[in-house]
Amino acid sequence: MKTLHKIILYTGLLAGLNAHAQLRVEISGIGSNQIPVAIATFADENLSPAQVSSIIKSDLERSGAFKIIDAGVIANPNDVDFSQWKQRGADALVVGSVQALANGSFDVRYKLLDTVKGSKLSQLDQSALPQHSRLAAHKIADDVYEKLTGVKGAFATRIAYVKQLGRSYRLEVADADGEGVQLALGSNEPIISPAWSPDGTKVAYVSFEQKKPVVYVHNLMTGQRKVVANEKGSNSAPSWSPDGSKVAVALSKDGHTQVYVVNADGSGMRRVSNSAGIDTEPQFSADGQYIYFTSDRSGGPQIYRMSVNGGDAQRVTFGGNYNISPRISSDGKTLAYISRRDGNFQLFVLDLASGQEQRLSDTTSDESPSFAPNGKFLLYATESGRTKSLAVVSVDGRVKQRLTVQAGNIKEPTWGPFMK
């Protein structure tokens, strides 16, 4: 309940911003081993602005990990015939109810039942205001996902991206399913490279509103923002340290673009890389001890790793002659990046322990990858024809989604963290 309260506080404050058109999600592919789950219509869910059971179904279907069985209405959720659902092929059953409270909020309750063992796996009771009924449903889907797969669900997280319509740029924030779009910043100048803070309350980005690239940190809860890097030349590619205290940036203030680290309040800037080439796109490792970055020091752009204190750098990517935009999974085991192969820019992942790489996308103009906080999916930008859109792919490449808007181009995505 404490975690839900913090998420509701955050989304409630963000909801004060102007809403805009929703993203449309298209899904293709399924997981290798789908878990059959029956989901019942929640009792009295028509009282809520959001149909809770439908959102849960949609979340679990998008993951590709579940085969959804429509359970319809169960007259008495407290007296379930487990054998009946086992015969229908369901390994688990989701039942629940929605109750309107006197203060205008809703009590959303659910149970996850194991039809094989005939026992209760989990239950969750939440009190939610009308505008947060979708969030309550996402939290239930997260619980189902975790209990049945052993992996924390990410349906209640948020994404951020840049939408361009003509010469207008919008930094927007949305639910992970593309709903609940809110405007964080509007500008007539480009906005690029947004990056979530680890606590999910801030986004760092580059804005050209001063007619040059400047790095800002934007507090989504208060609307206040602070300049973090406005040095001579280019200021670009911000990324957060795991503890949120520092931001890595790429600056050209001393000539060639190099990697620097600065405190999140803009103080204490120090140079980390020192090469005769271009070092850019820094990303902290999961433990905060290293920085991955793109460098052309070997002739073409490749990804390297060095200590957060600087020093010698080790090359990480060797497949292909053009690898950029490193991103590290939350467990530190997988590197995602964009690689140019046969003239196509595509999303790849590299197992850092084995050195085995895998191409995840079948599109040809990919950029800006971002891991889901549970490490199971990657969000990235791509282009089809002349339209820029977002795509999501599972780390095994089996499940793919496309997120589009009716008008404009969307790009520069970043997937937010779990809310603590």
TrEMBL record:
Gene3D superfamilies: TolB, C-terminal domain, TolB, N-terminal domain. It holds the Pfam family PD40. It is found in: Periplasm. Residues 1-21 form the signal peptide. Transmembrane segments: none annotated. One of its GO terms (cellular component) is periplasmic space. Keywords: Cell cycle, Cell division, Periplasm, Signal. GO terms for biological process: cell division; protein import. Coiled coil: none annotated. Residues 23-120 form the TolB N-terminal domain. The Tol-Pal system is composed of five core proteins: the inner membrane proteins TolA, TolQ and TolR, the periplasmic protein TolB and the outer membrane protein Pal. They form a network linking the inner and outer membranes and the peptidoglycan layer. PANTHER family: PROTEIN TOLB (PTHR36842:SF1), PROTEIN TOLB HOMOLOG (PTHR36842). Belongs to the TolB family. NCBIfam families: propeller_TolB. Part of the Tol-Pal system, which plays a role in outer membrane invagination during cell division and is important for maintaining outer membrane integrity. This is Tol-Pal system protein TolB. It comes from Pseudoduganella rivuli. The lineage of its organism: Bacteria, Pseudomonadati, Pseudomonadota, Betaproteobacteria, Burkholderiales.
